[in-house]
Write a structure and sequence with these properties.
Blueprint lengths: L16 E5 L2 H4 L10 H6 L17 H14 L4 E5 L2 H4 L8 H16 L3 E7 L5 H4 L8 H17 L5 E6 L1 H10 L10 H25 L4 E8 L2 E3 L4 H24 L5 H4 L12 H5 L5 E6 L3 E6 L3 E4 L17 H13 L5 E5 L16 H19 L4 E7 L18 E4 L4 E4 L1 H11 L2
Parallel strand pairs: 1-2, 1-11, 2-3, 3-4, 4-5, 5-7, 6-8, 7-10, 10-11
Antiparallel strand pairs: 8-9, 12-13
Helix pairs in contact: 3-5, 7-9, 8-9, 13-14, 14-15
Bound molecules: 5-hydroxymethyl-3,4-dihydroxypiperidine.
């Protein structure tokens, strides 16, 4: 069972970076050694998490990190993308938490010894609860608190980090968390969603400035997720609805960063939904990036809907992952070439791509052939985009190991390594072995 790429594929260049990715809340556990965050609170809300679980233990990575780094090294990857838990490194009074900082410093030092580049994300959704209690991302002040955290942590880390991303997927934090309420903090309000998005982007801009000053030799940028929008028909109403959905879900996050402006639909939003944008905000948001991280999993199909403007159309005939997400590798090539034609892009890293499958451990093996196929087809799709002129420098599999999949709890497994949550034993799945072989045989 192999990942097979065309012989002359650009994906086989030894200069291309391959990595694996995780996020703090999803793997770390050891929750008593950090401040409570919005996901701790959300997990307590009845019905919020499919299996009623939480992140208190997760993959127990805070205790098992040394073994986990050996595991990463055994996969022969060039880079490891991890996120920092804000509430593990910053105390409630804003000072550094030395114990928390030391945990990450030891981890970063060990990565260096293992010759694995550290791609660090500063915010992967785990906002400290006391900041949420003060309005969270609805409060403009949170952007400045984030920038202060970025300042302190990047100073403490010195030159240990190859790449910093300010935020992971502000769409999810803002839209899922504040607009439809299926993620923490569980607020469902359109004005809140648009406001949170603006403050997250402001936080990104402020923090990027700080990172460029404190860490000029790392590649500093942001990670955005994209779910490309396809029209269900050529009917002008469906096409217009699809364009609206794309501007609302995707371009809303990248356009202010690349062009210093929101999509035109901002003007068409009712006044009581529009975010409060101060003079100068878009200049802060649109500073040059060293890289753009692109996360891609699937596409969505839309048709016009009189009441809600757009409506999703299921594609039952297609193959889907265990998340119910359509498997659509062609969408990745199309996304990358379309972004490249719309914007003056910096170098791109595919910072997440992967599939949840209903894996089973049988006789010490997980034969996840569908996931191998998913990786093969998406890596080919990235290769095609490179051949069409997009400057893509790396690819990270989501995820290193099975972990807490947010509102799905532990029911969905995205790892290339299987985790037995009872014993915390890790088993490299067939996809992990195939990924390792692809990387080592380049
Ligand atoms: O698990 C998440 C990750 O935290 C952010 N991007 C999407 C993944 C799969 O849902």
């Amino acid at each position: 069972m192999k990942i097979q790429l065309p012989k002359n594929s650009p994906m086989l260049s030894p200069l291309f970076t391959y990595g694996v990715a995780t996020a703090s809340f999803q793997i770390e556990g050891s929750a008593t050694n950090r401040l409570p965050n919005i996901w701790d609170t959300f997990c307590q809300k009845p019905g919020a998490i499919a299996d009623k679980s939480d992140g208190l233990t997760a993959c127990d990575h805070v205790n098992l990190w040394e073994k986990d780094l050996e595991l990463i090294s055994s996969l022969h990857v060039d880079a490891y993308r991890l996120s920092i838990s804000w509430g593990r490194v910053i105390n409630q009074d804003g000072s550094l938490n030395k114990q928390g900082v030391n945990f990450y410093i030891k981890l970063l030092d060990r990565l260096k010894q293992l010759n694995i580049k550290a791609f660090v994300t500063l915010y992967h959704w785990d906002l400290p609860q006391h900041i949420e209690d003060n309005g969270g991302w609805l409060n403009r002040e949170t952007a400045y608190l984030f920038s202060d955290y970025a300042d302190k942590i990047s100073t403490a880390f010195g030159n240990r980090v190859s790449s910093y991303a300010t935020l992971n997927e502000p769409f999810c934090s803002a839209y899922l968390g504040y607009e439809v309420g299926v993620h923490a903090p569980g607020i469902a309000n359109a004005k809140a969603g648009r406001t949170a998005a603006h403050h997250l982007l402001l936080a990104h801009g402020l923090a990027l400035k700080v990172l460029q000053k404190n860490s000029p030799f790392s590649r500093n940028g942001i990670v955005l997720n994209f779910t490309p929008c396809y029209s269900s028909s050529e009917d002008p109403a469906d096409l217009a609805a699809t364009k609206y959905a794309d501007d609302y879900m995707n371009q809303w996050y990248i356009k202010p960063i690349m062009d210093g402006a929101y999509p035109d639909l901002l003007e068409s939003l009712p006044a009581d939904v529009r975010p409060d944008i101060h003079d100068g905000d878009l200049d802060i948001i649109s500073q040059p990036l060293d890289f753009l991280g692109v996360n891609y999993y699937t596409r969505l199909i839309y048709k016009a809907n009189e009441q809600d403007i757009f409506e999703e159309v299921p594609n039952d005939a297609a193959l889907h992952t265990d998340m119910g997400w359509e498997i659509y590798p062609r969408g990745l090539t199309a996304l990358l070439t379309s972004l490249n034609s719309l914007y003056q892009l910096p170098p791109i890293y595919i910072t997440e791509n992967g599939a949840a499958e209903a894996d089973t451990l049988v006789d010490g093996e997980v034969r996840d052939v569908n996931r191998i196929d998913y990786y093969q087809e998406h890596l080919r799709a990235v290769g095609l985009a490179i051949e069409q002129g997009v400057d893509i420098r790396g690819y990270f599999a989501w995820s290193l190991m099975d972990n807490f999949e947010w509102a799905e709890g532990y029911l969905k497994r995205f790892g290339i390594v299987y985790v037995d949550y009872e014993t915390q034993e890790r088993t490299i799945k067939s996809s992990g072995l195939a990924y390792r072989d692809l990387i080592s045989n380049r």
